[in-house]
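Annotated sample (chain length 716).
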Amino acid sequence: MQFNLRLISLFMGPIILVLIPLILAGLLAMNQLQNRLGEIEHQQLQDLESLKHVAMFGQQLGHLHEQILTTLRAATAGEMSSLALYREHSQLVNELATLGKDLNSIGKLELLARVDKRQVEALLEHYADYQRMMVIATEIAAVDPSTAEVNLINAQDSFTAFAIFNQQIAELLSSQIYARTTDAYNDFNAFSRYLMMFVPLALLLLLAFAYLMSQWLNRHMLIITQGLLELSLDGEKLPMLADVKKLARQNKGPLQQLASGLLNFRSALQQRKRAEEKIFQLAYFDSLTGLSNWQYLAKQLAAAISESQQHQDFSILITMDLDNFKVINDSRGHSAGDTILKEMAERLKNLDLEHYQLARLGGDEFALMLTRVASTQSQARIRAEQLALQISELVARPCVIHHDNFFLSASLGIVIFGADESLNTEMLFRSADAAMNKAKQLGRNTYCFHDPEMLNQLEANAQTSIELREALNQEQIVVFYQLQFDSQGKAIGAEALVRWQHPEKGILSPAFFIEIAEHTGLIIPLGQRVLQLSCEQLSRWQAQPETLELTLSVNVSPKQFQQADFVDYVRQLLADYKIPPGRLKLELTESTILGNVLETVQKMHQLRALGVTFSLDDFGTGYSSLQYLKQLPIDQIKIDQSFVRDITHDPDDKAIVKSIIAIGNALQIQVIAEGVETQQHFAVLRDNACFAYQGYYFCRPMPIEDINSVLMSKAV
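Output written by the structure step:
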């Protein structure tokens, strides 16, 4: 972090102006006080040292006097010889002379100089008298010990007189020390009071100056603070900060930097706010239609669940899927599809509703949530039906794209939710999707309410997809075959029909799992497995003279055919199993062809060049087969069993079948009828020149072992 010294000085200036003089004054005062205390302490030490000298002199004199008395007593008692007394006398003379010198030094002390000079002189004279007397007494005692007793008494009196006078001198000294100490501390206290008066006064002046500066600074800083406060408040728009801009223009230095920094912060905050709004828009709204997306609807739905539980009322969730939107999107391009999606979003936005949320869940799927619509479930159901009909009418209006009218319909799934505490957003979405899928199964262009069985079916489908994936890994996918015959009853080929050899449920038909495979993407590996097994079987048939001429039809799903590498995959299979031309036939549905006609035709010609033939499955059930029939390299068309089933007693079905056969013959395309279950079916079809037949009347779908047995028994 980089510090701006000028900005720091702006804030710290008043404080520094107060602190520095205050610190200097305090240091000066402390120095003066310390000097005064040092002088007092030095004086006291000198006085105590003088008193110590006096006390030590008295103590030494007392010891010496006791020694003199001891000598005189010993002389009086005759305990010492003259020679010993003389020696003791010489030593005492020297010690008395030394003490005399010490007393002279004491008399010159500064403290004694303050005492009356006459008293000091008297003290010295008393000691001189005492010294002479002691010298005479000890000297006489050494010559004539009998005189020692008289001298002992005189020495005692002389010492007592000197000691009394010396005590008086000591008392005078003590009084003098006390007086000097008292005067020194009085001076110190007076000096301290002077300093204590000066420092607060100086401090008050400095504080007044600092206060004026702080007021000036405070007025400007209040503008900055107010700007920060306004920026901290939540709001749709950021404040303009006009006062801060004025402050930045009218000032220089740190204040200008601070104001400019705040304005830069506002600019950065505005940019971040725009970025957050953009991120929020991207995260929770659809860029094409402007509607909220699945994530945002899920958050709103969670709040709606909580509100419904709290208020004990009911809300509605509707999911909607546009029927056949993929056909328009693939045939007219994504731009046309985007136009339709935006048009549908605008129509839904114009619904006259309250407390609702619209969303595009993805692709051509929309959702509408309407909260707290009724207090009872029956009322909510009536409201949901009205809304579903209203939405269906909006969707049914034609969409105009490049002057062409496009008509769409919608499949709607409806969920009513309320006080059930076990609900969550995932369950509601799953329930609505299940109801929407049910509406599609009912024929599209309708609505369906959710019931618990739908979720059970969803869970069952999920489990089936897991087991199907495992089945592909465990090679539980097998192929059954249903023979195809000509009008003479001769087997000319077969259709490969996938089956699931479930370890617990036995053989399962494709009706149980094909739709799930389509939705989960497993249809691609499933189709590859069937195509591989079929080519493997064709290769075996080529090795037997009885089955050499048989063809094998294999259904190919739209997703599998649209794979980019599909042609290469088939080419590799043909090479690996050495399949001769014309033996492998691929059955395509109308939805496969209509997905992308140009690309489909191109792939078909590429496969045709490899020797693969094509059959158009379920012919007549769609809407555009005749439109593209001449453009496609089709070798065979298959009449759907729904027309064959009632051909013997339904004139319309019979007429359709006759027309299909006539079209095929006119275009030199083979016609094969599936679902031939009775001799009457066969007779009608044969009478109308149908080329080939497939159905229970001739042969049921069977494993390859049984098919081979049938072929051998008919002696192909």
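Annotation: Residues 21 and 502 are 98 Å apart (CA to CA).
Annotation: The chain has a mean pLDDT of 80.
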